[in-house]
Here is the input.
Amino acid sequence: MFQIFPVILIALFTNSYQSDVPPTKTTGVPKPLTIRLENGEFSIGQTLLTANASLQDITQALGPATRRITRPSPANTIHAWDNDGLIAYESNETHLITCVSICFAKYELNFDPITAYEFDFKTTFKGDLLLNGYSVSSQDKLTNITSSVPNIKCINGLPLGVYTYLVSNHHITIRQINSPKIHSIEISTAYKQ
Here is the structure.
């Protein structure tokens, strides 16, 4: 052990221990995901989603899905990004993404076991959701969104707490089930005129 000590001291003073490879820059905290719906465009991160969005487009923005759910109805397949609090609905007929749902709160299992499984993410959405410049948070109530999002237009609402609006020429469905807070916001990829 005493023979190694002088070698370490020499290395410290001569900088011969340094690598030719520059150190990598690490931030320690990943940048939060930003989802935008404004000026008629829907984007996740830097990826623009159109009415022709495919699973490959969403995977480009988020990486591979953590789960795939084939519903009893043959209408669509659900792709879940559990760590991001997101799901995407893929049409089984066209294989295009029809909408993306952003989860702000978990369903209670006593509500509906099938729906609860679909929305039972490891985490809820922690990124930024911008609707015409308004930043939606997990603490928002429906009234906050409807009074704060510019140019939001109500299309319909159901007594169970499901409301559909037109924002930036896209349909959004806001679910507020058994709570005054928002459970999820679903954004259609199709442009509406």
